[in-house]
Amino acid sequence: MYSEKVMDHFQNPRNVGEIENASGVGTVGNAKCGDIMRMYLDIDENGVIQDCKFKTFGCGAAVATSSMATELVKGKTIQEALLVTNKAVMEALDGLPAVKVHCSLLAEEAIHAALWDYAEKHGVKIEGLEKPKNDISEGEEEEDY
Ligand code: FES
After folding, report:
1. 6 Cα–ligand 1 center, Å
2. Does domain 4-121 have CATH number 3.90.1010.10?
3. Which pLDDT score is estimated for 138?
């Protein structure tokens, strides 16, 4: 059911924890399953993500996708990090079962929420970033999974 990469990132998640005095912190949840994700970003003066950590109260797929997402955004600029979508994360993990696709949205939205927090704290505008939802299950019905 799960790829080897998903199992690896679930069993040995990378970048778990928190960053003290993080540049941006984002927390999102999915009210339908009750899972919660918090993402911490350390962004340097050139807008490069030096470090990324996460904490989750979530299912295995949420852990694996967040772990992979943190690996993918590290070392990237803010604009490049916006291209790390849940689809990109799923591809990097060799796919997820269809019923678990929504779990990968937690990581993407938590990164966006952390970037939003960074932008607000630093008085900058990030082109292409929309205000993230606190609850990603809002409006989910309209989406096609
Ligand atoms: Fe909630 Fe996976 S079941 S994030």
Report:
1. 14
2. yes
3. 78
Q: Which atom of ligand 1 is nearest to the CA of 59?
A: 2
Stretch 65-83: mean pLDDT, rounded? 97
Helices (H) and strands (E) in the chain, counts: 5, 3
Give the separation between CA 121 and CA 76, rounded to whole angstroms. 20
Q: Whose CA is nearest to atom 2 of ligand 1?
A: 103
**Which pTM was predicted?**
0.92
Is residue 80 a contact partner of residue 92, using CB atoms and an 8 Å limit? no
Q: Which residues contact 83 (CB under 8 A, 6 or more apart)?
A: none
Domain ranges of the chain: 4-121
Query: Residue 22 pLDDT > 60, yes or no?
Result: yes
Asked if residue 67 has its Cβ within 6 Å of ligand 1, the reply is no
